[in-house]
Amino acid sequence: MKVVEKKRTRRDEVDEIIRAEDKWEPIGHTPMPELPDLRNWDMRLLKTYKPFYAPMCDLCCFCTYGKCDLTGDKRGACGIDISTQQARVVLLACCMGMSAHGGHARHVLHYLIEKYGRDYKINLGDQVNVEAPHIRTVLGLKPETLGDLEKAMEYVESQLIHLISSLHTGQEGSALDYESKALHASMLDHVAMEVADIAQIAGFGYPASVADTPLVGLGWGAVDRTKPVVLLIGHNPVTAIPIVDYLNANGLQDKVEVAGICCTALEVTRYSDKARVVGPLSRQLFFIRCGIADVIVTDEQCIRTDVPIEAARAGTALVATSDKVCYGLEDVSKQEADEIVSSMLNQGKQVLILEPEKAAEVAVRVALELAPKRNKVLTKPEEIPDLAKDHRLCNMCSQVCPNLLPVGDAIEAAKNGDLQPLVDVFNRCIGCGKCDQECPRHVPIIKMMQAAASWETWKIRAGRGPVMDTEIRKVGAPIVLGTIPGVIAIVGCSNFPEEIDEVAEIAEEFAKRKYIVVLSGCSAMVAGMRKDKEGKTLYEKYPPEFDAGCIINVGSCVSNAHITGAAMKIANIFATLPLRGNYEVIADYVLNRVGACGLAWGAYSQKAASIATGCNRLGIPVVVGPHSSKYRRLYMSRKEEDDWTVMDGREKKLVDTQEPSPEHLITVVESKERAIVTMAKLCIRKNDTPQGRQIKLTHYISLHKQYLGTLPDDLHLFIRRASDIPIFFKKEVMPYLEKVGWQEKPVLSLPTLVGTYPSEVPIDAVVH
Amino acid sequence: MTVTLPYHRVNVLTGTKAARIIEDAGEYAHLIKRARRPLLVLGSWSLTTVLGGRQLIEYGVDIAKALDIPICATAHTKKKLLELDVEPASSYDIIEILNHLKDPEWRGVRKEGNHDLVMFLGFRTDLGEQGLSTLKHYAPHLKTMTLCKYYYPHASYSLPNYRKDEQWKEFLDNLIANLKEKEA
Fold it and tell me: Does any domain span residue B5?
């Protein structure tokens, strides 16, 4: 008799990958979800938070049918309409963002697996047991080794090919479905970020399970230019770490400066507190042109694509180290270090070296040889009038400034001896150099900024990685009940609309009010670039714990996974909800009960798009600055008109709460003042206790009065019962409520969206 | 045909449908007077821009007062309006008001019906241009008009790029004077 072999299903494969036989938690409904598996959750979110599109362009120019005009009711030759085309571009951006983090994760993993093997154990210290909330929740896998992290990346990569495929002409025809795919890509982005940072912590021995990480030097002035300087630009520490190792091994740690721009700076300072953070990516061109660096080592992401040209102009040597950023340079990885050093010093050759240890040795040796021969002289204020002598106030520089700055007027003033307008421009400059490029008279504007820039030094606390389980146990209840008014996550790039000081101001406003403030990336840097009257930065002034009134720096871009991961850990550690393959339940919990709000005030990149969209799928609202309107898409509600019905999980009945909380999933605001008020409001959750709601409304009202001058005109929407009214404002609020005809609203015992849309998840799954 | 470029090159139009440039304050005033339910949206740059010794927001107030036009005070402009003894009809932020304006059935800031002409004053040009793109594509039921110094391609009606503030001031002064005059 012929034995029929049982067909192996995808679920069998999933069970094998996630080791389903390990019973650490029950497996939820969506282990390793594919594109359609969380689609209903997405559609439920998008029903309340509808996509808002602001097309950058009237056209589609993706294929040879076009260009196609999509204005009015017109469709392209393939049938696509303007909304679907916007959503398609958003998905493309999210795939780019996710791939950038994923590429970083892959590279780090590959390096570490080659070094230590797949069985190398992950250890995040004794205070972090829930080591990988994203991998646990999305995949259903509890990673123990680097090999397990590789499994997570293989899953992410397998999804990416389907996502990218859907972007092809003649594929998806629904804006909402493209949005669902963007949400999927961005959820995976957080998995990829988590893989990258866990691998780094485990493999490079970064601090973990510790809050009080070292304070390290911050600012271009913090770099000792009397020493040889190696400048790291990018995000991936695979070469930065061997540079530190090489210096230590050769007794050079005090003889060579290692400094970084953008996230590699945050990475290397997690490894060595002797390294310096020059600043955010907006200072990249400025610092390169200062000529302080003797050698530039590029890795990946957010690196200027003209670094070879700029480095050559500055007389700085260049070592590119990433397969993503080869710059057309010769790959000399197989040559001996002596030969490479010689060609760089004698022929001025710029090189690509894909072997980290060799790149590290070459960079240090070239810096040591080159530095004594270079003259690092900065522009002095007295030189400015001469440098500006050809300036004619044509304002071409102002016209091309992406941050709309009055560059021409500032140069005019500087020419006449008044540097202050140029100082103001520098403080708002995003560092693109377009002004320089456009000037018909070749006025060296960026060079002039050396005289305008502050050369003060600041301190930043080295990135600390994951929030500890012990911290979650302490703050879980107050966050969910609302007595800690919220978690404010300030993340992202340095495309700030106004002065970089605004980030520190926003962070401090919330820290003073006992919110938990977490920072990452370039935002974490600029938050440190302001001192109080006593000369202290925020990192010196506020405790580094994940607790009320504290400020922490989790680390680089990929450390953002720890911020969203903290929200998941609240659901798991405080509410005891299983994470394993249980995304909908966890996201629903975060949306309805964890009062967290992100701020990406200077977001510019595709990575920022996917980070924010990943927050949104998890139920975390995000506020973005005015430049982010160019991302083309937001998720917005209309508070008065929309349906705010949710399920009461305990009573199992639908309740029209009439309460728009959170009001939006992602929105652009124009000013810092409005951002602060909006973030306070977006921390309100349906689960707040009366005491918690009072605290949250106290801040919302007081901030609204401070910045907008009155009580909020939507205040009545957030007061459920009289017990929600803050005592401090009661005399003012009561007449207002009477005037607007406020009536009591239903109170829920357990708010959830589960049960309000088609899902395999039973309502009981959200009851803990 | 001469193509007008926005002052800030970051706002260059990539498309097919661009604003009509109007330089005559009388024509602008006529369009505003002809509207059944105009709305004036004020942005944060109306607080930081000084024109002829006055804050830009004060010109906005004059325009609104001339025809009892409701104001939507975005960003943190409400506080200044209250100081000027003006109660805005709405304090939606910029994206929120755009999100409502897209809906032809929306009842407007005075609950009398959606607006048919929306004027903008005091926005970053890039944010303004993106917002106008939303309305160009998704709000065919209304017209948009910009009162700022520069050309906005995504608007229905826009001022040209004024090289000098004096030209802009003269336009706004004439507009306010025209609005105060009764139509023949």
Answer: no
SS3 A313: helix
pLDDT, one tens digit per residue, over A275-327 is 999 999 999 999 999 999 999 999 999 999 999 999 999 999 999 999 999 99
Q: How many CB atoms lie within 10 A of CB B80?
A: 20
| ipTM of the complex as predicted | 0.97
| Phi (first) and psi of residue A742, to 5 degrees | -60, 140
Q: Does B131 touch chain A (CB under 8 A)?
A: yes
- C-alpha Rg value of chain B to the nearest Å: 15
Domain total in chain B: 1
Distance CA A60, CA A56 (A): 11
Decide if B43 and A670 are in contact by the 8 Å CB cutoff: yes
Residues A650, A669: Cα–Cα separation, whole Å: 37
Please tell me which residue of chain A has the smallest CA distance to B140: A72
Interchain proximity B126–A54, CB inside 8 Å: no
The 3-state DSSP class for residue A526 equals helix
Task: Label residue A140 left, alpha or beta by phi (over 0 means left) and psi (-120 to 50 means alpha).
Answer: left
The reply to whether residue B75 touches residue A58, judged by beta carbons under 8 angstroms, is: no
Q: For residue B1, is pLDDT > 60?
A: no
Q: pTM for this one? A: 0.97
Q: Residues 22..41 of B with a Cβ closer than 8 Å to A: which?
A: none
pLDDT digits (tens, 9 = 90+) for B65-106: 999 999 999 999 999 999 999 999 999 999 999 999 999 999
Identify from B93, B110, B164 which residue to disrupt to test chain A contact, counting A C-beta atoms within 10 A and taking the largest count: B93
Nearest to A673 among B10, B75, B131 (CB): B75
Task: Provide the shortest C-alpha distance from residue A739 to chain B (in Å).
Answer: 16
Dig out the tokens for A253 from the structure: 């740690």
Sketch out chain A's domains with CATH numbers. Answer: 19-204 (1.20.1270), 220-373 (3.40.50.2030), 385-427+434-441 (no CATH), 460-766 (3.40.50.2030)
Which CATH number belongs to the domain containing residue B29 in this structure? 3.40.50.1220
Quick one: residue B30, left, alpha or beta (phi over 0 = left, psi -120 to 50 = alpha)?
A: alpha
- Degrees, nearest 5: CA angle A663-A666-A670: 95
Give me the residue from B8, B74, B133 closest to A670, CB to CB: B74
Residues in chain A, pLDDT under 70: 1-2
Asked if B140 has any chain A CB less than 8 Å from its own CB, the reply is yes
Tell me whether residue B7 is in a domain. Answer: no
Contact between B137 and A708 using a beta-carbon 8 Å cutoff: no
Interface contact flag, A670 B93, Cβ < 8 Å: yes
Q: Is residue B88 part of a domain?
A: yes
- Which residue range(s) make up the domain with B68? 18-180
Strands (E), A500-547: 516-520
Is B4 domain-assigned? no
